[in-house]
Amino acid sequence: MLKEERHHYILDKIKLNRKVLSSNLSTELHVSEDTIRRDLNELSLNGLIKKVHGGALPIDNKAPSYEERSNYNLEEKNIIAKKAVKLIREGQVIIMSGSTTNLQLAKIIPSDINATIYTYSLPIAIQLTEHPSIEIIFIGGKLNKPAQVTVGLDVVASISQLRADLCFMGTGGIDITKGMTEPNWEVSHIKKSMIEASDQVIVLCTNNKINEVKRYPVTPINNINTIVTDIKPDSQILQPYKEKGITIL
Description:
Layout: H1 3-17, E1 20-21, H2 22-29, H3 33-45, E2 49-52, E3 55-58, H4 66-71, H5 74-84, E4 93-96, H6 100-107, E5 115-119, H7 122-128, E6 134-138, E7 142-144, E8 149-151, H8 153-160, E9 164-169, E10 173-175, E11 179-182, H9 185-197, E12 198-205, E13 216-219, E14 226-229, H10 239-243, E15 247-248
Parallel strand pairs: 4-5, 4-9, 5-6, 9-12, 12-14, 14-15
Antiparallel strand pairs: 1-3, 2-3, 7-8, 10-11, 11-13
């Protein structure tokens, strides 16, 4: 990867995640940490990032919009969606979280599938209105405008009364020791209720979320049935999850 391409990758990632770590970038970009440090120094000198010990932070405090997050890692999300859609069966009841990967999944559900989908995501609900045979049940509550999802006790209470065959959920991070975690407290509680209401828990996870830990716990790793990722299932990084009995797609 050329230097300019690395710089674009770093800037995109820091805008999305609000920070980057040199060690993670080194692994993701397949270059040495010295190379990453030089990249961060150059971006910092150009006033594009704020360099800190072990990584960097954004200059501005504005969180990325939903549209910006939707377009980030789009190729990886499409790979995941194409794998996940094969898990959907006729007549199922499904809960979908508000992840941008789930939005890509919603776009490619076959037109001949009849199913009921509950979601608290406004973009996913709108996307599913284009499907001829899906019954959509939108879970109302307080709207989180940047994330375009409803949050709060009303959402948790509604989900707790459901019984679903599957839940498809994105994640802030997944780790073999810490399990699934989220950066947002309200979202972490919604996802706990999704897991409790579902027979099968399916996590849609781009490679940058593997072995990532966020602030708020959602569930231990042994409560997850399937991880769908853009990484090849035989990748060494996924081996510990297989050993826990999790299906990897």
